[in-house]
Each structure stands twice: as C-alpha cells, then as structure tokens.
Design goal:
By secondary structure, this protein is of the alpha+beta class. The protein has helices at residues 2-20, 37-42, 136-140; strands spanning 65-72, 76-84, 89-95, 97-100, 109-113, 122-126, 144-150. Keywords: Signal.
C-alpha cells in the first residue's frame, strides 16, 4: 500500500513538472540554426541589401518595410538596408539610427530592442509617428540590435 502511494505521488509530481516546462506559446529557436522559417529570415548578416524584393525572400508576397540602417546617430555611416515582413523579429547589426520606408508613414507598430531576438530594452511606436529613428541610444538607452514590426 505504501509503495502504491509513493509511486502515485511520484507519477503525479513528474506529470506536473513536465507540464510546467512546456510553454503554451511558440518559442523561436535562438541557437542560430534554421530549423523554422522565422529563424531563417530573422538574422541580418550584412548580405541582404536593398535589392531583396517585395517579398523579403519568403516566397509569398504581403506587406514589407525597408529599413535603411546607419552606424551612428542622425543617419551617418550608412550600413545597409533590410526588407522585413510583419510579425517576425529580425536581428540587426548594432545600429544607432534608421529610416523606415524612405521616411513615409506606414501601418502598424515598429519596435526596436537593444538585445538580439527582440530582447533587452525595447521601445515601440506607431508607424504613423516614428519615421526616422535618429538616436537609438537616446530612444532605447542603447543601440538597436533587433526589430519587430507588428500589424
């Protein structure tokens, strides 16, 4: 009888522990591999360039946004540009300013973060208002290393 109670308690506890470690949301793989589509397109490696096209390389269409990136504040020392699609986090080089879609207003909310994988200190603003993030160190408290555009 005691063995049955011990085994039952052990099975119940292990079931609760297993359930506590399984998240109820999708967590992106951040180990640098390309196991899922989001990871495949979220790393900026400097080789994308502005000629990526309207689909952002995903093969599907849909809305895109071009982000012109600069190493220093107020649009000096241009690095490159990247075309992103909504609802995906993109890692960026260490940037201090950017121009969003050539400075034209857009839909949704743009979020820049100081850490990779949209971590660290993040600041969000409407695409109707934030067209030229000119000083990330002032706006975010550090340089931007990732971006997320939500519609």
């Amino acid at each position: 009888m005691v063995n049955l109670l011990v085994i039952s308690a052990f099975l119940l506890a292990s079931g609760l522990a297993a359930g506590a470690t399984i998240p109820s949301i999708q967590v992106s793989n951040t180990n640098g591999s390309t196991e899922n589509q989001a990871n495949l397109y979220k790393r900026h490696d400097g080789g994308w360039g502005g000629g990526r096209g309207g689909s952002g390389g995903r093969g599907g269409g849909g809305p895109t946004m071009n982000i012109q990136m600069y190493m220093t504040s107020y649009y000096r020392d241009q690095i490159n540009s990247v075309v992103i699609q909504p609802n995906c986090c993109y890692n960026l080089p260490n940037i201090d300013s950017s121009v969003l879609d050539g400075g034209s207003q857009g839909a949704g909310v743009i979020t820049f973060c100081t850490g990779n994988n949209c971590g660290g200190n993040c600041v969000s603003s409407s695409r109707q208002n934030w067209l030229y993030p000119g000083n990330m160190q002032y706006d975010l408290g550090g340089r931007a290393n990732s971006v997320y555009w939500s519609l």
